[in-house]
Amino acid sequence: MIILSKELASQSVEQLAPLLKKGEISPVDITNSVLDRAEATQETINSHIEIYREDALKEAEKAEKEISSGQYRGMFHGIPMAIKDIIYMKDKVTTMGSKIHKDFVSDHDATVVSKLKEAGVVFTGKLSLHEYAWGVTNNNPHYGAVRNPWDTNKIPGGSSGGSGAALASDATIASLGTDTAGSIRIPSSACGTVGLKQTYGRVSKYGVYPLAWTLDHVGPMTKTVKDAAGLLQIIAGFDKKDPTSINVPVDDYVGAVTGNVKDLVIGVNEDFFFKGVDSGVEKLVRNGIQKLVDQGAKVQEVKIPSLQYSDWAELITSLSEASAIHHSDLQSRPQDFGSDIRLLFELGELPSAVDYLQAQQVRRQLKQDFQKAFNKVDVIMAPTLPVLPNNIGEDFAYLNGEKVDVIDNIIRFMGPENLTGLPALSVPCGLSQGLPVGMQIIGPAFQEGRILNAGYAFEKTAPMQGKKPELR
């Protein structure tokens, strides 16, 4: 396969890795292609907070020497990657998308960064986010709005909007995002890319600035499902530096991605996950499920009664924990927060201890109800988002022609997976009105291989029909 240098940035890791290993392409060429693309799209898309051209090229040269001398480290060796600017890198500024931390420099790497460095990843920069990862639009008052490459008037989703937009515009080959109430899956759906929120405790959060301690996850954002599996393979594992890390053996995620879904039992919950969904979105997701049925999967309806309370429980939990984290700055320098998140932090001071503890009881029941469902089915499939991305600056989206609140609707199908800590994957399932739609695949705890395999089987049916943003 011959790939022109300027086209390298548009490839996936699974396409590039074999060629890198054989020495048919160079990490330097790929990195230059990605950096050129990042710089060319920055004015239009604004996905990056910082681009590391000089450092990245040095790392790429090092990777090239290692690979050429037979020291190939694996699938991500020599792959250029930018990550969300809430993940610490030693001696680099990590802004958290904020004014307050605009000059913060960490003296250590996040555990996930250390693991990626060991794997030979080339870091090309830091990607924009909604301030402190607390929002779904990525309309950042300090660093500017990130725009959706499919339609630059639209939001890319958030809070990892820079990661989603950079992937869709080929300004990075892969990325890491964080997910507290959908912040990996929302931009993945809105930008037509793959996003995985793995099981809570599966990936270390050490060196990642928190939003809500009991809801936060760090996970892969990629162009393909196999890329997500390969990235999870690197970053997964117990870390004693993270008190929430769980010591469970790491599976062979790449090996689990076979595409065989014969006899897979797909759960569908009509009462919650298919209620109040835009008709264009619903059609694509139901078609996606049918494509797996065509490959031998079966469908069974499941009931999860406590889902009706999940919005409230997630809101109380996230507001309370986030406000506790930012309480001191909220008291001493409230003017330095963006107005939207300042309001959320102020609201977070209102719930009582009783409210918070009652929310945790809902959470406990929700975990039990999901477990009962997974006693009958292998995975649960649903829309990632019930609506299409809205216009930048507007606080409403359209649901079957009716105006609805953006935040309430965009996080509606996200919170249950954060409350339960269950793994959830968003994969592109087509375009509606020219905008990407995501299908969400939820699995039992620590069964990332199962949902990745289901996502891969669906991906093989080419739901996007090879279409990419026309931004060039």
TrEMBL record:
<dbReference type="InterPro" id="IPR000120">
    <property type="entry name" value="Amidase"/>
</dbReference>
<dbReference type="InterPro" id="IPR020556">
    <property type="entry name" value="Amidase_CS"/>
</dbReference>
<comment type="similarity">
    <text>Belongs to the amidase family.</text>
</comment>
<dbReference type="Pfam" id="PF01425">
    <property type="entry name" value="Amidase"/>
</dbReference>
<dbReference type="InterPro" id="IPR023631">
    <property type="entry name" value="Amidase_dom"/>
</dbReference>
<feature type="domain" description="Amidase">
    <location>
        <begin position="29"/>
        <end position="452"/>
    </location>
</feature>
<dbReference type="InterPro" id="IPR036928">
    <property type="entry name" value="AS_sf"/>
</dbReference>
<protein>
    <submittedName>
        <fullName>Aspartyl/glutamyl-tRNA(Asn/Gln) amidotransferase subunit A</fullName>
    </submittedName>
</protein>
